[in-house]
UniProtKB/TrEMBL annotation:
Residues 21-100 form the GST N-terminal domain. GO terms for biological process: glutathione metabolic process. Signal peptide: none annotated. It comes from Onychostoma macrolepis. GO terms for cellular component: cytoplasm. Its EC number is 1.20.4.2, 1.8.5.1, 2.5.1.18. Gene3D superfamilies: 1.20.1050.10, Glutaredoxin. Belongs to the GST superfamily. Omega family. PANTHER family: GLUTATHIONE S-TRANSFERASE OMEGA (PTHR43968:SF6), PTHR43968. It comes from the Eukaryota. This is Glutathione S-transferase omega. Exhibits glutathione-dependent thiol transferase activity. Has high dehydroascorbate reductase activity and may contribute to the recycling of ascorbic acid. Participates in the biotransformation of inorganic arsenic and reduces monomethylarsonic acid (MMA). One of its GO terms (molecular function) is glutathione dehydrogenase (ascorbate) activity.
Length: 240
């Protein structure tokens, strides 16, 4: 029987062993970092099961498996555990070689890792702006900085002259960047993208991707969860 989609808290029992032929993803339905792994699993057609974790009331058994306490985390049928979102995604691409998402060329792989490193410095602004607005703070300086950083992403696409960050088809880097742009309207940063035409085209293309459609939530669901998160009582099971 498939695990319940409802989040597992401290009182929940230890799950059984991962069935042969499957890999298990420890996730949280609204977490953008965990969505990275869900996107890769879906894109590659990897058979998997998902156990959602209550991140405010983490089970002891989860912390024993993954001392960082973060999602996503993967567990294999042999009990191996892998965590941190870029690492889990690279692991999946190597362990399941069908439909490779990372480029075969070493320089192109290095380019994607360098771009991901740059993007890791952009992610905090999504939260700084959205949380600041929720608290009634002045976020104008953060918006200026964020606009400059997304303009660099736009320039990257201009120079590359392709639809996606890795070329003319979706690759790993697109899925690693995507989850926060899915939430751009909900997080109140969409207006910062006004002068990034190539980036906006990329967003439109990503919204049409069947893998994105299969893993995404609509803006209203994101808003409901985010509001409960900001109020200190996140509703991880919203919509279930």
């Amino acid at each position: 029987m498939a695990p319940s989609p409802k989040c597992q808290g401290k009182a929940c029992p230890v799950p059984g062993a991962v069935p042969n032929g499957l890999i298990r993803l420890y996730s949280m339905r609204f977490c953008p970092f965990a969505q990275r792994a869900r996107l890769v699993l879906t894109a590659k057609g990897v058979k998997h099961e998902i156990i959602n974790i209550n991140l405010k009331d983490k089970p002891d058994w989860f912390l024993e498996k993954n001392p960082s306490g973060t999602v996503p985390a993967l567990e294999t049928s042999s009990g191996q555990v892998i965590y941190e979102s870029p690492i889990t995604c690279e692991y999946l691409d190597e362990a399941y070689p069908v439909k490779k998402l990372l480029p075969s060329d070493p320089f192109e792989r290095a380019q994607q890792r360098m771009l991901l490193d740059h993007y890791s410095k952009v992610i905090p602004y999504f939260y700084k702006i959205s949380m600041g607005k929720k608290r009634g703070e002045d976020v104008s300086a953060a918006e200026v900085e964020f606009t400059e950083k997304v303009s660099q992403l736009n320039e990257y696409l201009v120079k590359k002259k392709t639809k996606y960050f890795g070329g003319d088809s979706i690759t790993m880097i697109d899925y690693l960047i995507w989850p926060w742009f899915e939430r751009a309207e909900m997080m109140g940063v969409k207006h910062c993208l006004a002068n990034t035409p190539e980036l906006r085209k990329w967003i439109e293309c990503m919204f049409e991707d069947p893998v994105v459609k299969a893993t995404m939530f609509n803006t209203e669901d994101h808003k409901v969860f985010f509001n409960t998160y900001m109020d200190g009582n996140p509703n991880y099971d919203h919509g279930l």
